[in-house]
Amino acid sequence: MIRDRRASLAEYLTELQSKGRVVFDAKEAVETLGTNRGAFLDAAQRLQKRSRLISPRKGFYVAVPPQFASWGAPPPSWYVDALMRRERQPYYVGLLKAAELHGATHQAVMEFQVVAGKRMPRIRAGRSLIVFYYRKEMAAIVDGVEDTKTDTGRMKVSSPALTALDLMRYGKGSAGIDNVATVLSDLGSRVDGDQLAFLSLRFEKPVVQRLGYMLDILDRRSITQRMHEMLMSRGKLPWTELDRGEARDPLFAPDPVERDRRWRVVVRRPPEVDE
Prior knowledge:
By secondary structure, this protein is α+β, with helices and mostly antiparallel strands. It contains ten helices and twelve strands. Strand 11 (258-260) and strand 12 form a beta hairpin.
């Protein structure tokens, strides 16, 4: 903590970074610097114009280290945990970003994707775009959330199994069925079949059906057997479309090329894996 009450906000940022910190809130800075809120806000605005500081949420600030000045902000992994603790919301980094962290690197990930327990607006932070996806029952999938070390602490990330399920659940965040197939071709070897089966009980049946089909065609049937057994125990399965977008308009939807009876999935176009 800075004890010199005459220190400037710029000096405060330097001191924070020397101790491995990049985040702080307005109240902390005002108290430490011995200033008033108005003076602090003026100083913060000046530093934001100089690309030395960002404010992803009102009252929450992130220092921009010199090596990230050209980016306009440090990576979201440096501050997402602190941000979500301030929001008092359960969360995990998920979808394509989690897949990338688990080694599925076929596709460049354009968003830093976070699944959270409340609906939150996206955040533009320098070059990064943080996009939030809502899940009501976060406690139901806690066994699929892992702690991962970052350069400034830790953050929560979905396991490979939870990531695979989410990719089928959040269509807008997965960049299309071909991209999902490509990611799963990388991610499949890291998915734990027992955890996948357990977590699948917390997902809608059509999500499980589509994921089961996708893993089967990618030669990952060994990890879908238990999930299939649990799915069948949930009662009668309706037929579901592999790609709901292709079947949205019955007048223009292509005819099915396959009806997979194991998962009861209608396929109108086989997914293509980017090799």
